[in-house]
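Backbone-to-sequence.
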């Protein structure tokens, strides 16, 4: 039986529903195979991510190209995300008020500290960068790409989500907490201080992050990202205090937005 055949007879409604769901799932798998670090993929790579025959993968990519969700470079034989993704991305951003509300506060913070400021949200698996503000006039600056997916436990932003989200909403967190008393204690400290600091040893970049809430719900993590020489270590530096203050102001603004009466 081919990999696109429907299951056993379930009546007209069941027969139509299950293949439709499978089609959506497979299309989503293809689109999700593209990342910031892998913006171009071959048909073989997409076939592997889909787990079907090459003919089936080609049929899905053809349909996605017709919907402008994929592009195909015939010369390079490479697929990439299509222009309709930008439209969907813009619509998703409009649907997340925290991005627009945080913008002016982030820009003000950039002017105050002269470092890159980043906003990340949780996508169900890890922290994803949705806004970046920085000073393009600086000779040396740390650039962070929109859409970057950050480490759950090694990035300052990821640790904010680990600290404030229920453990069962963070894949694998409970196991990591059971195996690492140090991580458990670090998350307790983040909850106490409302600040997370991280200093990767391999690239000389330091980030500090603070939570942004809407009521009791964690919506985002705001972070300062710079070099280890420009961003002080620890969670009580002037930069850390400025970040905490700014994140708290965005939280307060979101609280006002939430309580506005329906119009």
């Amino acid at each position: 039986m081919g990999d696109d055949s429907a299951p056993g007879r379930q009546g007209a409604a069941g027969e139509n529903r299950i293949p439709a769901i499978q089609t959506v799932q497979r299309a989503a798998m293809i689109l999700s195979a593209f990342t910031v670090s892998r913006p171009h993929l071959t048909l073989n790579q997409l076939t592997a991510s889909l787990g079907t025959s090459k003919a089936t993968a080609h049929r899905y990519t053809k349909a996605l190209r017709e919907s402008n969700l994929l592009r195909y470079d015939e010369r390079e034989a490479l697929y990439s995300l299509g222009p309709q993704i930008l439209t969907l991305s813009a619509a998703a951003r409009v649907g997340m008020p925290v991005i627009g509300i945080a913008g002016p506060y982030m820009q003000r913070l950039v002017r105050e500290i002269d470092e890159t400021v980043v906003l990340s949200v949780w996508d169900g698996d890890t922290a994803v960068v949705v806004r970046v503000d920085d000073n393009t006039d600086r000779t040396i600056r740390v650039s962070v790409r929109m859409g970057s997916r950050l480490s759950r436990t090694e990035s300052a932003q990821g640790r904010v989500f680990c600290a404030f989200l229920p453990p069962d909403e963070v894949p694998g967190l409970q196991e990591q907490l059971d195996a690492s008393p140090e991580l458990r204690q670090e998350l307790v400290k983040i909850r106490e201080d409302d600040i997370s600091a991280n200093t990767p040893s391999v690239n000389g970049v330091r980030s500090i992050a603070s939570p942004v809430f809407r009521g009791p719900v964690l919506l985002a993590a705001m972070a300062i990202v710079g070099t280890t020489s420009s961003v002080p270590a620890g969670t009580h530096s002037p930069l850390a205090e400025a970040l905490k203050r700014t994140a708290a102001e965005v939280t307060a603004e979101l609280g006002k937005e939430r309580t506005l009466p329906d119009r």
